[in-house]
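User: Assemble these into one structure.

Assistant: Restating your components, then the assembled model:
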Amino acid sequence: MQTNPLQHLMPTCHGAKAAAAGSVLGAPAMAGDVLAGTLRLNEIFHSIQGESTWAGAPCVFVRLTGCPLRCTYCDTEYAFREGRTAAIGEIVDAVAATGCPLVELTGGEPLAQKRSFDLVRVLCERGLTVLIETSGAVDISPCDARAVRILDIKTPGSGEADRNLWQNLADLRARDEVKFVLTDRADYDWAKAKIAEHRLAERVREGRLGAILLSAAWAQPKGMEITGCAGLSPRSLAEWIVADRLPVRMQTQLHKIIWEPQTRGV
Ligand code: SF4
């Protein structure tokens, strides 16, 4: 049975309240060179988590710059290059200042920058619940064991399926989640086959994986570096899942329903 991730959040809330009150400074001393290490940062914002089993929870997002992929439906093309250099200590302070116990590293591809693993470790040591939204094209094994990885497996419709690092699946833990963004019926059938091949549903049932998420791609116009995507009807996806009795969790991008789909910083 899946655990409710919001239940897990409860004890860490206290840690985060303490962090907001200043006791974050009482965390084990972090080597200065780690905090002084820099990352390319696109934006930090406090919003509502729109995806995964954490959807609906207030969350602070740290969006890092850069991604080696060019998915057809990418909605954050601006993160490919835009950004500035920021010290890890500065990013951690900005996250702590929100008082939010839940933080997500996103991108771009956040793990494409090697120092992102340091950032994850520092945030975990400050008592925060850390989610990492990763494309699955980067080795996730160096991530701090306290972090939750949401592994976005790229389907053929993304145009980037050959970038999947399948060995990442062996590293997934009980709280991690696997996500497939689907552009059409062929993607759905492909995802269904991968779920069976890698016994993902069994892993969820046995408590060795947090969830399998299926998401209908939103329509995305052609961009400067992406080809765009016509999108998939959520209703079609829902009907396929029900007809197949597929043991997955359908999700949408909540923030695109709350705000206009192209709105940045939410
Ligand atoms: S992995 Fe794909 S969807 Fe995610 S930022 Fe990179 S190009 Fe965009």
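The pocket of iron/sulfur cluster is lined by residues 67, 69-71, 74, 76, 107-109, 135 (CB under 6 Å).
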